[in-house]
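_Backbone structure tokens_
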Amino acid sequence: MDLQQTVSLSSENFSRVLDDVADTDLARETPCEAWSVTDLIWHVARGCDMSVLLLNGASKAEASQLFAVAAPSDVVGQCRRALAAQLSAFEADRDLEQIVHHPMGDVSVRQLYDFRIMDLAVHSWDLARALGVDEAIPEELVAHVLAMLGPLEGIIGQIGLFGTGPSGSLDSAASPQSRLLDLSGRRA
């Protein structure tokens, strides 16, 4: 599966969980510390919008400004719009080695794809857990994100984006999804 197909699958998977969000769910807590369902959905929407800006040549400062905007009342609708815009932007023919100015530092378009795939895959689980719905992440996404994050296993807890990182308590029989969740600081 190529990067565009994987981004598409990650968008479809997040959208599948988003379909289960009701207005009464928006204030629910999520596994993301101090984030409600609204906060998580808005984070995903802003990440999608940021990717579109970056792919169109935005600066680090311009991309960072997106996260200062408060969530709108129609956060689910805005997330759907942002997911579609990101998918459209990624479908364009891109030089995967082109550098974009991400708020965390300059990265290649290939790395931006990976960031978005990881964000959508892991946050689909977070959202599903908050809603009490099917938490399964497609195997292809799990494999892609594990391949990306696996080399960081020894330091991932120090990065600040993945909680404490791996628990060290999983045995060799743990499923790939369980390993991914544990690696990203989630305790299923």
About this structure: The radius of gyration is 16 Å. The CA atoms of residues 23 and 76 lie 9 Å apart. Strands lie at 99-102, 105-108.
